[in-house]
Amino acid sequence: MNNAWLREIDAYLIDLDGTLYRGNEVIEDAPAFVEWLQASGKSYLYVTNNSSRTPEQVAEHLQHLGIKAEAEHVFTSSQVAAEYIKTDGRTGKRVFPVGEIGLYTALRDAGCQVVEEGPADYVVQGIDREFSYEKLKKASLLIQGGAVFISTNVDKALPTEEGLLPGSGSLAAAIRTASGTEPLVMGKPAARMIDFAVERLGVSKERSVVVGDNLETDILAGVQADVRTVLVLTGFSKREHIEGAEGQPTIVLESLTDLMKYAK
To answer: GO molecular function of the protein, one example (predicted)?
Structure first.
């Protein structure tokens, strides 16, 4: 296994659930891994498809689990959507959001004009636990009228103690069906999240790596962005899932401890 390239990596783009924690339980070596990143002077971002939380809320959750975190190191799918709109060539920045506080905050922080009625230049949809027929109707009509349809992420389901609940992708599917328009997807597995994260850190793709537990999201996002990847077998994807997966990891490791060992 040729892993010498890991010693040349300057920037880490790190998934959260399944990589640093599982639900409300920290993965044992996650705190030590983050401390190693800081002590080694590595650049890093926590990249998450979670669109409902603000960076401050994500950081607070990590801190509660014993993982060092600051809001400046968090990059959510809502922030990717806001960054995309900010850099898009359209002159209008009126946005009709379908989502929660994390989405609203990201859009306003990026200077977008958040509107509750049309006209709108963009419809941006994330997870919304108060989704309604009225929101679906407004979003569909605005998109049919020319608004760009953006989805923060298309995760179909959210695993909870109750079972699998509808995720952002389920809401995106409803709006897609009603409007007849495919969304521009911001979060993993789309390359945009990784592209913007690398740009935010000011590093090259050649010296960056995506670290995650999910072949279908984390690893595929890295592959599509042309960034090398580390699959850690602490979460969703298992070794038997690798063969035939669309996103093939650059390297597969059992844990973050192994990653630290090879990267030193």
So the answer is: phosphatase activity
Q: Do the Cβ atoms of 111 and 131 come closer than 8 Å?
A: no
Q: Does the annotation place 188 within a ligand binding site?
A: yes
226 annotated among ligand-binding-site residues: no
Degrees, nearest 5: CA angle 42-48-51: 140
Cβ neighbour number for residue 128 with a 10 Å cutoff = 18
Tell me the catalytic residues: 15, 17
**Does 17 appear as a known binding residue?**
yes
Domain spans, the chain: 4-49+188-263, 78-185
Decide if domain 4-49+188-263 falls under CATH 3.40.50.1000: yes
78-185 belongs to which homologous superfamily? Answer: HAD superfamily/HAD-like (3.40.50.1000)
Please write the tens of the pLDDT for every residue from 101-153: 999 999 999 999 999 998 999 999 999 999 999 999 999 999 999 999 999 99
